[in-house]
Design brief:
The protein is an alpha/beta fold. The protein has helices at residues 18-29, 44-58, 74-86, 115-136, 155-158, 164-183, 201-204, 208-219, 245-255, and strands spanning 9-12, 33-38, 62-66, 97-100, 146-151, 188-195, 267-270. Strand 2 (33-38), helix 2 (44-58) and strand 3 (62-66) form a beta-alpha-beta unit. Helix 3 (74-86) runs parallel beside helix 4.
Length: 278
């Protein structure tokens, strides 16, 4: 079977679990080598296990690398560690794909938002991707074959209660996506993927006031209507389901292929048909 990303190298931030791990598997199945980034030492064993599984299943090279994307030094350290791990014997090194997936949400009503919450969320969700692309730019392809995909959220434009900070970070990420698509036009396409609710602990941890506010959107989102056999998610209204991580990964994988070479500067909605406000 043809593997369209054979021999390419991807950096995926926050990829030890959840959407990031699903993206890693999607790209690995297409022949891509993976730098599997994670932040916390507590994720080391999970990242190592995933690396071993992907290596065995897809006969590719996967290297887990710990680096804190939310620290000033973390993104540059990640790029240097990836270079050390993946440079060829004649010191040739190229980063073909960057997936800015790592993100945090610290939701609060306006009176309860704190400066530390603001600063830490913007460091991880906005400054981290910027510094990573900045550090990686010298190693991007020169023929437009590179791919950068930023994982955004419907919260960038829907104005959900408690998401002054998180929604703002995702709007900033989308703005940077459009700018980078111009500045890096000779190197890579740059797009964002905009999911709605996705299975996993991040969505389930939202406050009740947020879950109540998004309920109407979910009920009117075409592909979030549950089918027979779908597992009930207690954080979602009856008769609905969240996106599977593999479904989001499929959209990201599509944008990383050669067929997507004429798509750049776009926010691709992977939210099941949730109506967006613009």
């Amino acid at each position: 079977m043809s593997r369209p990303l054979e021999g390419k190298l991807a950096i995926i931030t926050g990829s030890s679990r959840g959407i990031g791990a699903a993206i890693a598997e999607n790209l690995a199945s297409k022949g891509c080598n993976i730098a599997l980034n994670y932040t916390s030492p507590s994720s080391t064993s999970i990242a190592n296990d995933l690396a071993a599984q992907l290596t065995s299943s897809y006969n590719i090279r996967v290297v887990p690398i710990q680096a804190d994307i939310g620290s000033p030094e973390g993104p540059a350290k990640l790029v240097q560690d990836v270079k050390s791990a993946f440079s060829s014997s004649d010191n040739i090194f190229q980063i073909d794909i960057i997936i800015n997936n790592a993100g945090i949400a610290q939701n609060a009503l306006l009176p309860d938002v704190t400066i530390p919450q603001f600063e830490s969320t913007y460091r991880v969700n906005v400054l981290g991707p910027l510094l990573l692309v900045q550090a990686a730019q010298p190693y991007l392809p020169k023929d437009r074959s590179g791919r950068i995909v930023n994982i955004s959220s419907v919260s960038s434009s829907t104005g959900f209660v408690t998401q002054s900070v998180y929604g703002g970070t995702k709007a900033a990420l989308e703005a940077m996506t459009r700018t980078w698509s111009r500045e890096l036009a000779q190197n890579a396409t740059v797009n964002a993927v905009n999911p709605g609710p996705v299975e996993g602990p991040m969505y389930a941890s939202n406050a009740e006031v947020f879950l109540e506010g998004i309920e109407g959107w979910i009920k009117h989102t075409p592909l979030m209507k549950a089918q027979e056999g779908d597992v009930k998610d207690e954080s979602l209204p009856d008769g609905t389901r969240a996106a599977r991580t593999g479904e989001i990964a499929g959209v990201v994988g599509m944008l990383c292929g050669t067929e997507a070479g004429w798509i750049t500067g776009q926010v691709v909605c992977a939210n099941g048909g949730m109506v967006m406000l613009h």
